[in-house]
Design brief:
There is one protein chain. By secondary structure, the chain is mostly helical. The chain has one domain. The chain contains 16 helices and no strands. Helix 9 runs antiparallel to helix 14. The two termini are about 25 Å apart.
Length: about 350
């Protein structure tokens, strides 16, 4: 594994590119634009503009390919200069498992995989995934890892009952990949980032399990080991035989988290209305807060990790702002959905 000083050259490149990130003022200019023509003039001033045709009104079909190309460019900068492959694999893993989800949902819904929202940053064979899902027996020439095949098979079974199971199973598999890569990294900041991510993932997962009729049947595969939100503590809460107040037990456990107060409103919304928008925003903001703490460093992995998360967040916010403007949402409705920037 690379040492902290090995990241000096890459972090130097990252520092130069940080100035190109979308700012709060850029988003305000979009949100306050009087019409979509003015929105596109604002977009033309941003780094992402090179992937848009800003001379004509954009459609939703234009947005995702442009954003994907922009994120791909940031990923390639890291891939070219990273001192070893562990960070690259860590970043890529989420896109691999995103594609697993997308393929599984498309196949089980009877839709064409070509229409699924696939990421170009994923490298696993879409054709192989589709073959695993569409055949009773796994074809002999499949090049996928056994863990991927297992998740696809479990998704086929559980997803037929409740498609939300697919997200939970794939997220748990991603968590196992991240834990493996964090061990390989032998980096305290990477380990802490992964641990924080898994704790927050378990909060989201158990709340989703509470809302699902088949939650108890997949809980063992959906929850992961995390320091302060351990699988052993959470599993009994999903059981039909649990005799206590599972919500209060969960809240009590959550008080151990450094982000407990930040998560409160999102947890309440999920419990009361089974809506997860506030919780997803709180989780995104909590992880951003962690990586921003290392932004000024020149050694170690945090500046690079933070920059890539920053790229993802700027695109998330642009997506929210553009969609809101396109559909005539009120300013406050757009703003309340925006994530913290890097």
């Amino acid at each position: 594994m690379a040492t902290a000083s090995d990241y000096l050259a890459l972090n130097g490149r990252i520092k130069v590119r940080e100035s190109e990130l979308v700012s709060d003022s850029d988003l305000e200019r979009i949100i306050d634009s009087p019409d979509m023509e003015h929105v596109m003039r604002v977009i033309a001033d941003l780094d992402v503009a090179e992937h848009f045709d800003v001379t004509k009104p954009f459609t939703q079909a234009d947005v995702e390919p442009a954003f994907e190309a922009h994120l791909d460019e940031a990923f390639r900068v890291i891939e070219e200069s990273a001192p070893d492959n562990v960070l690259v694999e860590l970043l890529r893993a989420r896109f691999e498992w995103h594609n697993v989800k997308s393929v599984a949902k498309a196949v089980l819904a009877g839709r064409s995989v070509e229409e699924a929202p696939l990421s170009s940053l994923g490298s696993w064979s879409v054709e192989d995934m589709q073959a695993v899902l569409e055949n009773e027996d796994v074809p002999a020439d499949i090049a996928l890892r056994q863990e991927v095949v297992d998740v696809l098979r479990r998704s086929k079974e559980a997803g037929a009952t409740d498609p939300r199971s697919i997200d939970l199973l794939a997220d748990a598999a991603l968590a196992q990949d991240w834990k493996r890569l964090a061990r390989a990294a032998k980096s305290k900041p990477v380990r802490q980032f992964v641990e924080r991510t898994l704790e927050l993932q378990n909060v989201r997962s158990i709340l989703r399990l509470f809302a699902m009729p088949n939650g108890a049947s997949i809980a063992e595969q959906a929850l992961v080991d995390a320091p302060m939100m351990s699988r052993e503590v959470l599993l009994p809460l999903v059981s039909d035989e649990y005799e206590g107040d599972r919500v209060e037990t969960l809240k009590e456990r959550m008080r151990l988290l450094p982000d407990a107060e930040q998560l409160q409103d999102g947890v309440e919304q999920a419990l009361q209305s089974r809506e997860f928008g506030l919780l997803e925003k709180a989780i995104d903001d909590a992880l951003m807060s962690y990586v921003k703490a290392g932004r000024s460093e020149m050694f170690g992995v945090l500046p690079t990790l933070g920059y890539f998360l920053g790229k993802e967040r700027e695109l998330t916010n642009l997506r929210i702002a553009l969609t809101g403007k396109q559909f005539g949402m009120k300013r406050e409705q757009i703003v309340e959905r925006l994530r913290d920037l890097y």
